[in-house]
Every structure is written in C-alpha cells, then in structure tokens.
Amino acid sequence: MRFLGNVIWIICGGLLSAIGWWLAGVLWCITVVGIPVGLQCFKLSSISLNPFGKEIVDEGGAVSCFLNVIWFFVSGLELALVNLMIGIILCITIVGIPFGKQFFKIARLALFPFGARVVKMR
User: Fold this and answer.
1) Furthest-apart CA pair in the chain: how many Å?
2) Which end of the chain is flanked by fewer CB atoms within 10 Å, N or C?
3) How far, in Å, CA of 88 to CA of 8, rounded?
4) Mean pLDDT value across the chain
5) What is the pTM for the complete model shown?
6) How many domains does the chain fold into?
7) How many CB atoms lie within 10 A of CB 57?
8) Model confidence over 93-115: pLDDT tens digits?
9) Cβ-based neighbour number of residue 23 at 10 Å
C-alpha cells in the first residue's frame, strides 16, 4: 500500500515538491558557506518523493536551531507555504486527504529541516 501511495503521490504533486527542494539546494550550493544547507535540501528532495510510511523525529540542538532560524527566513517559509497550499487544495476532495496530509508533513519539515530525522514507520 505504501508503494501505491508513493506512486500516486508523485503524480499528485510530489514531483513538484521535490523540484522545489532541488531548486533551493541548487541556490544554496552557489556559495561555499551554503553547501551544507544545499545538501540538506537535496536530501529533503529525495524524501519528498516517497513520504508514505515515514515520520519525522526531532533531534535538534543549538546549531540546528540557529540553522533553522536562518533557513526559515531565506527559503523555508516560501517552500512551506507552497506545500501548505497544495495540501489544502488536495484536501478539498475525500480522495486527496491522505496526500494533503503528506504535504502538511513536508510543509512542517520545510520550516525546520535541521535536526529533523525521517524514519520509517513500523
């Protein structure tokens, strides 16, 4: 069921979300200082392609908090709003609710990606 959900997810906008993360990663990697943030974006791009069966666990510290504050103002807010709006649009129909919930999960991750770990659900 997770596989089918992930396939339908890509069709219903997961690919757009992954492209948004990828573009943010490219922009961050332009500078040497931004490369760690860009690599985080690339990791989150791959996660946004198959979100079903995964959950987010927060394990952040002081450095993660600092990076999350910078991230929020530079690219996190825009990506979170896009994912939030797509999730709201998908939740209009009953069939789209599971996919909308996944977009809400990615929107939350888009706000504060540092210190967050994605784990498979049992």
Assistant:
1) 45
2) C
3) 17
4) 86
5) 0.79
6) 1
7) 9
8) 998 898 888 889 888 888 888 88
9) 14
Dihedral of the alpha carbons of 110, 104, 53, 43, in degrees to the nearest 10? -20
Tracing tokens 């049992």 back to the chain, one arrives at 122
The range of the structural domain enclosing residue 53 comes to 2-120
Beta carbons within 8 Å of 18's beta carbon, 6+ residues apart: 45, 46, 48, 49
* CA pair distance 4, 38, nearest whole angstrom: 30
pLDDT of residue 83: 85
The runs of H, that is alpha helices, within the chain are: 2-9, 15-28, 35-47, 62-71, 77-90, 97-111
Phi, psi of 51 (to 5 degrees): -85, -20
Helix (H) or strand (E) holding 119: strand 116-120
Task: Compute CA distances 15 → 21, 68, 83, whole Å.
Answer: 10, 24, 12
d(CA 92, CA 99) in angstroms, rounded, equals 11
